[in-house]
Design goal:
It is built from 6 helices and no strands. It is an all-alpha fold and 195 residues long. It has 2 domains: 32 residues; 148 residues, Ferritin, core subunit, four-helix bundle (Ferritin), CATH 1.20.1260. The termini are far apart.
Length: 195
Amino acid sequence: MYKKGVLFVVLIVGSIWLAYAQNSIMNSNEQLKPIGEIMEPNIGMDKKNREAVGALLNRLLSDEYLLYTKTYNYHWNIVGPMFSDLHVFFQEQYEKLQAIVDETAERARMMGVRAFGTMSEFLKNTRLKEEEGVVPADMQMIKNLLADHESVIRYVRADIETCANKPKDPVTRHFLEDVLEKQEKMAWMLRSYLQ
């Protein structure tokens, strides 16, 4: 009997609290956006600067996604005496790239910008070149990936400078510095195969 009484009191108090919370939300001065609409972030950056950073991030996202796809392609299609080593190596690389892709898309979303999510958007906005229908020899694969990583490194360095100046965005600058470090390490590993 005692347990039923305690449960009844907990249910009553919970219901009262829920009604109060719902009333507080409905009477707040802020309007809630319908599901599907992007709420404007109030993060100390005006819309123009957030959109500029978002565009920069979506361009990087496009580059990273193309590089991810190219690395995955090489992972699937590698043949020859280096098959085992390079198959595993390419997997390690595309897994790191997949993480960068995800983090870049999420950073764009933090700016209140829709992250690109279609192949046509990636292909339209990438600065890298696709190799449709081509399966190069193993060392050419390494050279191609190295060239793409080094291109991305140069783009990211320029983007870091952009975020340090106008629009001033130290968080995205720091994010890009982390991406730069990861890209430089992947490039070093690729370069080591060629020496």
